[in-house]
Amino acid sequence: MLDRTSGTDRSLNADPVSELLLGMRLRGASYGKLRFSPPFGVGFPHSPDARFHFVASGNALLRSPSGDLMSLSCGDAVLLPRGEEHAIVSDSAAKVRPLDSFETVPLCSGVCAIDAHSEETCRSRDVLVFTARMQFELDTMHPLVELMPQVLFVGSLLGRQPEIRPLLDAMEREMTAVRAGTAGILARLADVVAASVVRGWVECGCGDATGWVAALRDERLGRVLSALHRNPGHDWTLAEMAAQMGSSRSVFAERFAAATGTTPLRYVSTLRMRLAAQWIGRDRVPIDQVARRLGYRSQAAFSRAYKRVTGHPPGQARKLRDETS
Prior knowledge:
- The protein has a seven-stranded mixed β-sheet with strand order 9-10-1-11-3-6-12, with helices on one face. A five-stranded mixed β-sheet has the order 5-4-7-2-8, with no helix packed on it.
- The protein is α+β, with helices and mostly antiparallel strands.
- It is built from twelve helices and twelve strands.
- The chain has helices at 16-21, 142-147, 164-176, 182-203, 212-217, 219-230, 238-245, 249-260, 264-281, 287-293, 299-310, 315-324; strands at 25-36, 41-44, 50-57, 60-63, 69-72, 77-80, 86-89, 97-98, 105-108, 111-116, 127-137, 152-153.
- It starts with 15 loop residues before the first helix and ends with a helix.
- 41% of the residues lie in helices and 20% in strands.
- It folds into two domains: 26-203, Regulatory protein AraC (Jelly Rolls, Sandwich); 231-324, Orthogonal Bundle (Arc Repressor Mutant, subunit A).
């Protein structure tokens, strides 16, 4: 438990990574059921949200944000956690059209269909893809998303998480069948599979990620980070943070900076402003309420701190979110 007054963490035996992941949610913002006949290429623009793809039929290539081509076969699923620009193509020479240039047909709330198959092409060669734009509701877990690779493949996790396979099989059946409620069921299955991908990455040690994750896995530093993330609005001092770790201020500050690449007080400031940007931009929380949540005595003081960290006033967070959605 956390003492909200002093910021003291009394759950010293908790695993900080697992503890912070308890607040992780991956919620679908919009979904699409896509059918293409080769040759084809569909481009997905950069988005502030993650992007999930599941191939229910056929074969295609994923052109990753770095330009690499990766094979996708029936039953494959991928998650691009930072929503960077990418494309799904039938072959390396295929011309790419933007996703929003295709005609869409609404299936149900939040789910639409694009049918771009060719009558001249054998329908068995069509590629059927279910795609989703997903919002990470990580609250204070933003550093985890930044450390993830550009593309996470479900296939690499099936050995450790065999429970994902029935979910993928169910998605394939729903995509190829004509049944009532198919679109809604696909959306829910996609949410679960995508969240499982993230959890699997964390459980496998977060790949080559170091720094923040390594600090979380350090028993003493992890206690400090857990306390900061659970109570970012507390008026943290260097002495209080050092006490969480059980060391002197100088030893704590040196160890914290070596692990995270920043000073403890700067980390707290950045953490607060990440939260503020999320609450203002995504959740539409009034700026004065955000300021109070984060422990500022006035909206003016909060606005100055926000601009100092981000380079722009807090009101622009909502505008930036609207422009990139």
